[in-house]
Structure of S4 domain-containing protein:
Amino acid sequence: MKIDITSEYIKLDQLLKYAEVTSSGGESKIMIQNGEVKVNGEVETRRGKKIFPGDIVEVGGEKIEIQG
């Protein structure tokens, strides 16, 4: 899946909600804190992590490529 963002970056929890991986910020927070999300191949537990164009987020076996 490819996601286009118009800003410089998007926060990880906002991205999951925007990509419709989760239905709420609270659900995003739980997934991130449980270590279910990877950014560029590494587990990320900070929900406020800034995601920039070119980053790849993996969750639930699906890859989300960020484009700007």
